[in-house]
Amino acid sequence: MAVVKTTGARIAAICTCLPTRRFDNLTDSSAFTEEEIRKVTGMAGVSSRRVAGETICSSDLCIAAAQRLFDRLEWHPESIDAVIMVTQTPDYFLPSTACVVHYRLKLADHCAAFDVGLGCSGFPYGMWLAAMMLQGGGMRRVLLLHGETPTRFSDQSDRSVSLLFGDAGSATALETTDVAGSTWHYALHSDGSGYNSMIVESGGFRDRFGQDLHKHCVSMNGALIFNFTIKRVPSLIDETLKAAAMGTDDIDYFIFHQSNQFIMKHLCAKQSLPSEKIPIILRDFGNTGGASIPLAMTQGNLTRPEDRPLRLMLLGYGVGLSWGSALVDLDAKAILDSVELDNTSQVSA
Amino acid sequence: MTQTEAVAWIARVFETAPDQLTPDTHRDNVPAWDSLGVLTLLAGLDSAFGIVLTDEDIQAVKTVGDILDVMRRHGTLTSSPA
Hints:
heterodimer, A: 349 residues, alpha/beta, Peroxisomal Thiolase, Chain A, domain 1, five-stranded mixed β-sheet, B: 82 residues, mainly alpha, Non-ribosomal Peptide Synthetase Peptidyl Carrier Protein, Chain A, globular
């Protein structure tokens, strides 16, 4: 796909949601030796993570975040024209999680609701989709949700994933704007030949009731994912900057998918990006898939000038293989907020 | 870079002594050449020499000699195999 652009959309608010339950990799892990844990966490940069447990699904995290947005923005649910749920950990095979959210948020029947099955690259894709819908006319407000509970498909004996992933959800409120200059740029890519580099083999209709329980958990070939990242992400940054006729200095923050500290630091060094422009929140939250970019925005202590928008390059890459960028503005009035969802409270639809 | 220098570089990547490695040394006999060690190797090849392996290379590299072959193919090694 060529780099594309949209106009006429703004981010009104982003709210993220984390489960309250905290898992400390060093003190709460029993499957590995202390040396193994120190080695893995040293490289990945993950000390602790938030875990959903058995009671919280992606929808619950996103609904809590969306409700906070409605309160802060004083938006009535009936004013939402579309809800997009981006997740690879849906509540059900069917119906779409977006429809569950639609019901529980009391959205109107004129509101479009659908899921998008993307993981780590899902935030730039979702921003592109939402902005396109707003640019197309007829819609005024879109609610973009990213919810992931990867700890629920992680094999606790597999150190490559069990010490890495955390759970989180986000809600992004987008609306039309007449403010000039709100042109956003995107570059979106895929390489399906790497579909099995990160995969949950069983449980879908290719192998519905497979007997090997390990295949119901995610398996990740870390070397292939790393190699894909160092091949694809540098050129993704370059092509996005080129399309927008900008340089590194024009970007306030490069918000990377929070994949792994080792990978992120390697990418930054390779591209000569200043570390102060790269929020890294892995230490406390781990890799939360598609929710990691908005989580880095709400938890990354961004410095926000009062007199101009922040210019952000959002970079998602991973499972698919899929990668994409969104070069967007976050104006000074846009709200960044976060909430927590208590694991002990039973959530029901 | 000579082969001796390349072996010394590989030894640094895997935090071992150069005299512990020969081209025939298999990854199973290098304690730090585990899944995390592979990432360190990939990052090192990229940052030190600008070498990004193909997925096939990653699957095929099993010995120190295989790494040397990759470096030779990319013009990093100036000498032929000993």
